[in-house]
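Students often ask why we bother encoding 3D structure as a string. The short answer is that it lets us treat folding as translation between two languages. Here is a chain of 375 residues written in the first language.
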Amino acid sequence: MDTPGAHLEHLRDYNESLVVALARSRAEFDRSGVAEATGLTPQAVSKVLGRLVEHGLVEICGVRRQGVGKPASIYRLVPGSRHAVGIHVARRTLRTVLTDLAGTVLSSRVTPLPPDFTPGQLLDAIRAGVRDAAGPGVGSGPGSGFGAGSGVGLVGVGIGMVGPLDHAAGIVRDAHRLRHWHDVPLRELAQEALAVPVHLDKDVTAGVTAEAWRRGPTFRDGALIMVESGIGAGLWLGGAAYRGAHTNAGEFGHTVLQLDGPRCVCGRSGCLEILHDTAVADGRVDAAARVLATGIVNLLQTTDVNHVVLAGADLLRSPEVYESATRAAIPRSHWLDVSVTLAELGADVIAAGAAMQVLDAAYGIPSKMGVRSLF
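And here it is in the second language, the structure alphabet:
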């Protein structure tokens, strides 16, 4: 039931999110700068800053004198006040990172997963990975988790997982090449195991989120292409992650390039993924890169994005080969400019993006509010 108090609480949280988002984008700021950027009144900004200082998210770092009168306090974000753990579940490995409130990767670790791992085996690996990243105190029994005494200020855990999956419901539907993953409620199971909030998304969507965080407003329409035990594409369209009607957008590797091609694990024939992987198995990395580049051009023709990010542990074994093939395949035009880069965070990009999604859920700006960009 809607109540005035509920609306007030939402407004307060929304205003705090505005200021935290601004703080992440600026080394220092003052009350008047926040008011100008957010449209909040100076009085509202003062209240928000007071709460954020009280909670330790921002701190006063100096004063600025502007003529006669009381000097203005200068504030800055306290990155170490909050943290998030991000996890990248691939078909062979589990990568775990710890980030601070600014999204900076503080630690990264990779552990092998059993072949054709089960949900129980994955949960054990996740529990161990989170403990290692953020310290003891999570997943050790009912009511366990990162409390105030943990010292880490953990906001939650983000998981970037092999698809297909239902992001909204937190369910892994039928992960390709993994037999035990049919309609598994991974988000719910992980929350029970860890006793902290858990965010579940497709691996590629988490990855493109990381790129958008780091690149800022210039990354408005882009795609992250991941090659790691499969091929997928994370889409960032119109300044936001695009997941599709069933939250399963990005099954890029299962677009057909050859109608009479070899049978793919998805059941179709001639998919980009099987053609690419066959070439790799034959030792023809150049040919595999050209197959991927052909698919990327098809994606560009469909979506008209202007930034392509290449990522994934398998691709990063031969980054120059893939980058060169992609650049060569894109049609040259003075008005169809497309930037091709490697993921800035390298192999950590999926796990880091999953952590950033957790931070965004807690301290990001609610969607569909119609506010102007802070950046």
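Translate back mentally: The CA atoms of residues 35 and 42 lie 6 Å apart. Keep this in mind for the problem set.
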